Amino acid sequence: MYTLDEIFTELNEVIQVHNPTAISSSWIFYNSPRTYRYIYKHIRAETGGIDWDTVTKHIDRPYQKRWTRYRHKSAKPYENQAEVDVLLTRHRYKLYTLITTADDKDRVHQDKIIIAFVRLSQRGNVLAQKQLVSLLGFVVNDWIDRYYYLQKWKGYSDDVEDKIKACIRCYRYTGSFLGYLYKTLEYSGRGIVPIQKYSLDDKVLDGAKTKLDFVAAEKVDMCTPIQ
Question: Pairing between strand 209-210 and 203-204?
């Protein structure tokens, strides 16, 4: 019986020998059938099918970006709360990692939970997408408060939600989903004009007067009859 480490060592050796320009499930099936059989039997996603995200994480880093998957037609939207409940139940003791992480192990669990919801959303489950968008909203709001390059997004909650949904649709197999989302917000936010909030109680110049004093003065002038 092979161990997980042995299987991925063998798979990486096969990849190095062939040095393919693209790697896929079919490529593994034809070029490394023994590892494919092990993967098919032992590395299963929580919502069905092979967990290819786990597979790609064990491929040597220089080859990870060569991973491709077949494009499918847009998934037909559906609602299935039972599928969502399966994920919430299985990860109930680690759901806190979606809000905060204490160490590297927590970050591994965080990424695993998020990607599980991403894959379910990509299959068309709108309830999974809604749940994930809600959870990621807390993460992004924290980023906006903490990181200078994302502060331009403050006040653009609807646009932020659209970006989260776009990242869920487009995410493939290249690294952390949160890293992908962060970079997307950083790059796409460069052209955003920050929303400026002003108060009539703000001080002007030396601080002796507020903006309200000038507004009141302008109103008086406008009401003064012309001689």
Answer: antiparallel
